[in-house]
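Late entry, evening session. Most of the bench is empty. Finally got around to the prediction I had been postponing all week. Sequence below, unchanged from the version circulated by S.P.
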Amino acid sequence: MADKHILVFPERYRAQLAPLLPESVELRCFSTLAEALELAPQAEIGWFDEWASGAYSQGPRAAVNAKWINTVIVGLDAFPVREMVARGQIFTNGAGMMPDVVADFAVLGVLALAKRLDEVVRAHDRREWLSGPPGPMEMLGSKALILGYGAIGREIGTRLRAFGVDVTGVRRSPDPDPAIIGADAWRAKLDAYDHIVIAAPNTAETQAMIGADELAAMKPTARIVNIARGDLIDQPALIAALEEKRIGGAFLDVTTPEPLPRDHPLWGAPNTLVTMHLSGQSQTSAFRRGAERFLKNLKHYLAGEPLEHVVDLTRGY
């Protein structure tokens, strides 16, 4: 048989993936970072999604001969983008693969801030019976702005509308839907919204898209939910706005840096919940979904056809 296509892959998932691979693909698996780095240069196809060892980010750096690198991760922060561009590598990611999972977590954030579930939990831990609700905000009739109305943003919008929330989405591409506005229109309307949900990709254009000016334009009761990337918010400006009570609160699944140091002032910011980038992890189906997408793309790859969900590394998504 002709030389096989070598796929470097985590050992922990071998039993699930191996029976589904065609005979033309040879699986070489790693259990440690050292093994991943040793095998990576042998890969024609690299799928390094093993989190504990750091192989998910270090493996692609060492995969100098790979033609295709795959991941279930959405953001590019952990990956050697410049090196992959220089090598001419194809990079496929998990964009749009779990919009429902992340959307569930985003809506959890909206509800937690509206009802101040964090204060209820703290009272529970103190065994204190509260005499009144710490968060009386009603969802019905409130207004939400979703920055980044892609697959995840649309799922968030669907869920919020079920609670009676008036939802406006923001996207770069024109859309005939009057509930979707362009990337240049939202800042002038910030004072109309009770919930600002950030679900945009992390690009040069979106970094620090919420800064001091945007925070100053919001309602003093406005709540921010960020399930995108920490870089999309100017954190010092956000901390100042929270400490000075100029906005109502923040639910931050993502921060800069990650993990957030124990002495970082964001931990102590009032009316703030930091949820340790758990949104995408709060599920049990990531490997199944990722494997289904990978196997479909593998058929394309072996047939010499264009792959799906290819990242434009020059644009960042």
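Two things to note before I forget:
The mean pLDDT is 95.
Residues 99-274 form a domain with the Rossmann fold fold (CATH 3.40.50.720).
Will write this up properly tomorrow.
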